[in-house]
Amino acid sequence: MNARSCTLALVVGCCMALVMRPAEAQRPAATLITGTVRGADGSPLKVAHVRLAPERSAREVAEAPVARDGRFAIATTLTGVLRLSVTGVDHYSLSIPLVLTAPTTIGLDVRLKHYEYADSLENVTVIGDFNHFAFSGGRPLVRQSDGRYTLDVEAPADTLAYELLGLEKTGRSINGTQAGGYCYDGGGDYRSVIRTHDGRATVVFDPAALVRGPGEPSVTFRDASAAAARLYARYRDWSRQREAFMDSSSAARRRHDSLRYDWGPVITERTAAVARERDPLIRQMLLLQLWDAESFSHRLDSAVARQLVREIPPSSPWWTSYDYGGPSSMWLPIHLASGKPFTPRWRADTASALAALAYLDRVVAEHPDSMVQASALGSAISLARAAGDVPRSNDYYLRLERGYPDAPDLAWLRTQYSPNRVIQVGRQIPEFRFVSLDDSSVVYTRASMLGRTYLLDFWATWCGPCVGEMPYLHPAHDSLAADGVEFLSVSLDNRPDDVRRYRQGEWKMPWLHAFAPGGFENPEVRKLEILGVPTTILIGPDGSILAVEPRGEHTVSEIREALRAARHQ
After folding, report:
1. Are residues 184 and 101 both part of a single domain?
2. Distance between CA atoms of 352 and 265, rounded to whole angstroms?
3. Please, are residues 285 and 234 in contact by the beta-carbon 8 Å criterion?
4. CATH number, domain containing residue 56
5. Are 138 and 98 part of one and the same domain?
6. Mind listing the pLDDT tens digit for each residue in 539-560?
7. Which of 70, 208, 385, 428 lies at a C-alpha separation of 20 to 30 Å from 154?
8. pLDDT by residue (tens digit) across 353-398?
9. In whole angstroms, what is the distance from residue 330 CA to residue 380 CA?
10. How do strand 173-174 and strand 535-539 relate by DSSP bridges?
11. Structural domain for 498, as ranges
C-alpha cells in the first residue's frame, strides 16, 4: 500500500470560493468539479476525499478533502480520460470516469456504499504500524466477555495506525470501529488512528458498532443532459452488465457446468445506441463496449469491426482507459475489417499484422499520452514477433527501452523479448536452487535435474490464471509421462501450507513441488527473471530451454512439438 501520513485529528476540509486574481489571469483555464459526498444513509461522512488522476497513472493530479457538510471542489487543467475517485470511512470507494477535452464545469452528488461485512468475526486480524501493514503478519483479536474484541500491541510512537483484515467480506483491509482519527491507505480505504500510552496501545473492535444493511452507490449529475452525465450512465450500465456476466461465469465454474449467458439483448441495445449517438467520444465508447460484448459472445461482426477501424483514431482518449484493452485491441478488428474470417490462426495473417503495426505506429506518433505510446510499442513488439518479423520486433523493443525507460511493462517485456533475456529457447537454464515442499532434505537444482526433461512451472494458489491451468496441467502430466517429461512446480505463495491445503482439494498435482520464500523477491526467482505467474519453461536433459510458456489447451501439443524439434537438431 502507498501509505500516507497519519494524524490523530479528524481530517476536515472546506470548499473555498475560486477568485481570479490579476496575477492568475494567465493561468490555463481549468475544469472545476463540485458537489457533495455522503454516506449510504445520506449523512456526511466522518472523513472523505475526492481525487483526480489520469487513467494510466498512479499519480494523482489533484486531491481535495470533503467538508463536514459533505461539499467538495476540485479542479484540473488536464484533458483526456481521468478518474474521479471518491473515498470515505466505513464505505467502498467509487470511481467515476471523465473524458475532458476542454475546460468545463461539472456538478455531481455522490452517495457511497457501506462496507459489507463477513458473517463470521472469528478470523478478523489486525495489521498496522507494528507489522508494516503486512497481510501475512496480522494478529488475532481476543474476544472479551462484553462481546468486544481487543488486541494489545507495542507502539513506540505517540499514535498507532491500524486496519482490520477479514472483517470486510471480500478480504479488503479496512478501518476499525475504534478511532480518534483516520488516514488514507492509498488503496481506496482508510486506517484508524489511536493514541498510545507508555509504548503500547489497545485496539478495540466493537461488532455492535457495525452498520449492516443493503444499499447501492449512486452518482447524480446536476445537469443530466451534459456529456459527462450521459457518458457515466453508459459506463455504469456496461459495468453492471459485465459484473452480471462475471457472476454467471463464476457460478458456472462452481457448478462445474457450461456457461449460459445471452449477450444477444446487450448487442442489440448497444447497436441501437451507437446509431443514435452523435457525440464522437461517447460513440467511440459504445463501439468499444459493443465489440467487447461480441467478443464475449463469440459473435464477431465484420461490420462492427469496420466501424471501429473507421471511427476510433490512433489519438482516441479511450486508449488511456484500462477498460477497453488499449490500442493493441485493434489488431483483430483490423483483421476482420479486411474481410478475412476469424480462425484460430488469424494472428499469422501477415497483411493484417502489417496493417495493425501501421495503426500502432500512428498511435506512437499521434497520441499525446506517453504511457499510451509506450503501450503501443509494447504491443507492436509482440505483434511483430507473432508475425515472424524478429528484426522489426527487436527494433520496437529498442525504441521502447531507449525512449520510455519508465514504462511499467518494460521489465516484463525485457524477460519476454529482449535479445539478452535469460529465459529463451536455445539457451541453458541458469543455476537455480529450490527446496522440496514435500521433503526439506531434497533440493532441486539445475545440476540435480540434468538428465531429465522437465516442465518448470512457477505458480501460486492465489493466482486465478494458475488455478485455471489445472484442467490442462493434470492431463498433460499423465499424457507426457510416457515421453519422460517430469513436472516441477515452484510455488510463490505466502506460506507452504497454502499449497498443501490446495492439494488436498480437487487438484492433487501429483508431481514434484518446491517453495520459493519471498515470492517474486526470492533471489532464485529474480535470477530467472520471473515477473509473473503462471510461467512455464520446458527444459531438456542437457539443461537447454526447449520451449517457453507451453500452456492451456495446447500444453501437450506444444511440448511434443518442442521435443520433436529437439530430437531433429
Report:
1. no
2. 31
3. yes
4. 2.60.40.10
5. no
6. 999 999 999 999 998 899 999 9
7. 208
8. 999 999 999 999 999 889 899 999 999 998 998 888 889 999 999 9
9. 12
10. unpaired
11. 433-567
